[in-house]
Amino acid sequence: MLRAMRLDRRMLPMAMGLVALATPAAAADSLTVVTYGGAFESAANKAFFEPFTAKTGIRIVKEEYDGGLAKLRGMVEAGDTTWDLIDMETSDAIAGCDEGLLQKLDPKLLGDTSDFIPGAVLPCAVASMVWSTIYAYDTTRLTTAPTTIGDFFDLGKFPGKRGMRKSPKAALESALMADGVPAGDVYKVLGTPEGLDRAFKKLSTIKSQVVWWDAGAQPAQLLADGAVSMTMAYDGRIQVARTRDKRPFAIVWDGQLYDYEWWGIPKGARNADASKLFLEYASGPDTIWKLSRYIAYAPPRKSAMLKIDQAILPYLSLAPDNMKNSLRIDAQFWADNFDSINNRFLTWLGQ
Amino acid sequence: MTAEATAVLSERIVRRGVRVFSTAVLIFLVAPILIIVPLSFNQSSYFSYPLTGLTLRWYDFILQSPEWRMAIFNSFVIGFSATAIATVLGTLAAIGISRPSFPLRGVIMPVLIAPMIIPIIVVAVSLYLVFAPLGLTNTHLGVILAHAALGTPFVVITVTARLMAFDTNLSRAAASLGATPWAAFRRVMLPQILPGVATGSIFAFATSFDEVVVILFIGGPEQRTIPRQMWAGIRDQINPGILAMAGLLTVFAVALFLLISWLQGRSGASAR
Amino acid sequence: MRAFLLAVPLLIFLAATFVVPIGKLLIMSVETVEVANAFPRTAALLAGLPGPPALPSRQIFEALAADLETAQDQGTLAAAARRLNTYEPGFRSLLLKTVRQLPLPDGEPADKAFQRIDQRWGEPETWRLLGRAAHRWTLDFLLTAVDHKIGAGGTIEPVEASQAIYVGAFLRTFAISASVALICLVLGYPVAFVLATLPARQSNLLMIFVIVPFWTSLLVRTTAWYVLLQPNGVFNALLTRSGLTAAPVALMFNRTGVLIGMTHVLLPFMILANYAVMRGISPDYQRAAVSLGAHPALAFLRIYVPLTLPGIGTGTFLVFVLALGYYITPALLGGAGDEMISQLVALQINRQLNWGLAGALSVYLVVFTLTVYVVFNRLVGVDRLRLG
């Protein structure tokens, strides 16, 4: 009994002390950059963060988050913004701007904005790279190589399981493109009740064979395990599996759905000037392409595409050959329709 | 054969059947843990038998990795702090509620054990709603308060059970002999209920130590605990490091089991 | 009174960390302030109108124009737009599109300008929805959570089949929880019986098989099943190698995985609850019945089982109630079409930040859980809940 009590008494102050220790302190001439972490962060570290520190002497403090605006909203409302620069996805970048959580960007900072590919500069954010939803297969398992988005939906020609993300986003666009809708008309068609029916009908043709995934790392695993013969995936993940893990994977670019990744400066950022300096540096035509040395994501500037090593060009979403039949994900469309379409998608899944 | 003999025989067969069935169920309970722990020592990063060779590198990996180290640190800091709060508040309340004079017991008891019954997702979302404007999300304090609330019912229940066996005349005797209420509590009641307090606090600690849904909603990257990190690992890319962590947690579970058995041995059969 | 004072600190603590937050979430299911806060002038004018207006007066258009601009400055526009979008997909972008064209050019009447920006401003339906969203109290979320809505005529009607997901999810949650409770009872009752009737030494030893899993982290056990049940996992390797099946069997990302995982996690509760009761039953009763000529099976059913009813009740209640709120195990082991209500509540917050619907789903979940609790308390008595 005594022993148990002594244990308790000793632990209490220790625990309290540890809590006090866990509170971080802020530094003056530093820049707190928040990313999703993982492969993108380590590539950005080599391509942008380290050279920037070497050039300016401004230290970069890296932090991770899981996306979403909830935490940022909390900081801005409390008037205590500890972040200086955020790596964001499109829906967050647009909503963050609408809600006044991000600072408006001065386009002058970015130099010649016409050099950016269309849509890569928003009022509150600038694109850092381009990622894409593609489909991939294992070259050692398929005897004939699929080449079009239609092949993904063709169970007769290419029998076997398919991996897809458990979300209507990207799945419906792919279904329409496979059904012969030209890329430019996809959202127009999807916006009508008949078009939505058509997309679901096409999706239903492969439903029995689909293995649904949630997290971005799963498709490469499914493919490696032979659990699926083809899978929708993010291009960077497949490239990592190909180059680092030496997997015999190939990407089909036809019908690719690309989107941008963004930098945004939060309202009330303490080191906003340093953030702007960083954006000027990292978005510059001489720097922005360097990310692709470390991870296969394309830069959103036309001139930068020319500087890229020709050997890796075929593996980038923005390479002209890969862009022939491609579509940019429409964040506005999904902001309006995700709720109702996702309900329908969930009902459809359960049927 | 007589009817009686048939009955005895069939009873024996039934008994044998029940034993075999029970053994199978017990194996079902432990087998998954027993099967994956050896895999955490596997050379190759594939989860299959036979093992390709034994290694400690996955354990080394998690003990070296900053993320896992932080998760371990957080789990203990949050667990101990939440347990301390839950134990103090829960024990006091249990002493109060066990007195015959306690008013409105039928209303208050359900409130005290509600954290055990209300679905955890409702708790997590509600706390997110209320903590965010207060700046308590993404803080250790917020998670500690939430876990303390989840842990209190266990302390209340175990201490109340212990107090039912406690003879209140002892306290009255101590008071009549001139002891102050505090001294009477410390010298007479506390030693009696301590095993109950300890058992309840272990339950409270285990609750916090294993909790992930609330953390998913109100915790940030700095509040990642072991289960939160495992959740991320399974969702993202399941690697043998997770199995190594699972191995460590299994050892921890055995330790908790031994601790509880020891406490119950001390408290004797009356605690049940 | 002293007795009560001792419980006060915990009551205050639970009120702050538990009762008030949950109460607030449940109130969110009927209260909606986003639109009224963002567009106060418009809301006041719309509330003053007699019935659903054909098309509002120019004054209301002007009020909305002014409200939109203020809302954007104050950062309340986004929340209001999200709220309106739950009525009508596209309402969000209608508002954002309109606000981008403000302030209106001098001299152009507000109603004309709005209809020039988007023709939807000329439709009475748009204004009907705006007027409804401006009310502070609403039944919308509670109706949506059971796949109903208030139609154009003001009557309650079911939503289209393709949008009906919640009733199905509630039924599924109920079915999964009931199945798990039943499976646990079938598996756990005999084990508890064997443990309770064995000599103490042996039973204490075997108890390790129940208690160690009980103390092992939920995440560890779910991970274990994840690894075991994978298409190329240990279990499937065993099946294919032994020739029982030709190809891997789908054991996870479906209902099978959910049931296996949840049963494994909750089974110890069932065993322990029954064991506690069975331990206290003297074998003499049954022996007496048999010696009086009863068939052993009959004696078991008539004498023993009724005596264990409190254990059966407690175990089934615990497993069922805990299963109702399950989140982690179905999220990791379940597949498409296995979503339980907890997952849909999480989805509302993570994806949409739709507090109203999350609150409404919670209302039904909590009310149902409490009903089960009250029934249990009446039949068995909550004092039976023991630990350890």
Question: Can you put this structure into words, describing what you see?
Answer:
The complex is a heterotrimer of chains A (351), B (272) and C (388). Chain A is α/β, with parallel strands linked by helices. Chain A folds into two domains: 30-130 and 260-323, Periplasmic binding protein-like II (D-Maltodextrin-Binding Protein, domain 2), CATH 3.40.190.10; 133-258 and 330-350, 3-Layer(aba) Sandwich (D-Maltodextrin-Binding Protein, domain 2), CATH 3.40.190. Chain A contains 13 helices and nine strands. Chain A has helices at residues 2-21, 38-56, 70-78, 90-98, 149-152, 168-178, 186-190, 193-204, 218-225, 235-243, 272-282, 302-307, 331-350; strands at 30-35, 59-64, 85-89, 125-138, 162-165, 210-213, 230-234, 249-264, 326-328. Chain A is globular, with a radius of gyration of 23 Å. The N and C termini of chain A lie far apart (59 Å). Chain B is mostly helical and 272 residues long. Chain B has one domain (57-271): MetI-like (MetI-like fold, Orthogonal Bundle), CATH 1.10.3720. In chain B, helix 3 runs parallel beside helix 6 (140-164) and helix 6 (140-164) packs across helix 8. Chain B is globular and about 70 Å long. Chain C folds into two domains: 32-135, no CATH class; 166-384, MetI-like (MetI-like fold, Orthogonal Bundle), CATH 1.10.3720.10. Chain C contains 19 helices and two strands. A two-stranded antiparallel sheet of chain C has the order 1-2. In chain C, helix 1 (2-28) packs across helix 19, helix 10 packs antiparallel against helix 11 (200-215) and helix 10 crosses helix 14. The model of chain C has no long low-confidence stretch (mean pLDDT 87). Chains B and C meet through helix 1, helix 3, helix 4, helix 5 and helix 6 of B and helix 1, helix 10, helix 11, helix 12 and helix 14 of C.
